[in-house]
Amino acid sequence: MPPPPGFDHDLPSLGSLGSLGDEARRIVVVEVAGALDMDACPQVQARLGQALSLHDPPLVALGVGGVTSADSFGLTVLLAADRHARASGGRMVAYAAGLTLRKTLRDRALDGVLDLRPSLAEALRALRRHAGAFTL
């Protein structure tokens, strides 16, 4: 699929938005790759906003394995999405963070703020447990 008009190829790739799960639990998977910076923020924010609005409460697995760098603007978008998910009774779990992103989060004392899991499978497990708390 060709990029939309005006698309800057240096912006992060936003993988397809997909829903996983059964009728009781809906988990949306979003993948972000490339530079997570001020230029990328509008696209990433729009995609995360879409993911957060699909189900109530929102359950989002965010793939960040392809993120090559992140500045304070990009990190703010991730933190705001996480805060929105939690305020709505849902959860966002990031997975597959590479060394660069983990170091950036650690250097800014944010490594304990975002829920980071090593793989999509682990992120899905955490989100299913969270969703299960509502179906008991």
From TrEMBL:
UniProt xrefs under Pfam families: STAS_2 (PF13466)
Region forming the signal peptide: none
UniProt domain STAS: residue ranges: 27-127
PROSITE patterns: STAS (PS50801)
Record protein name field: STAS domain-containing protein
Organism of this sequence: Nonomuraea aridisoli
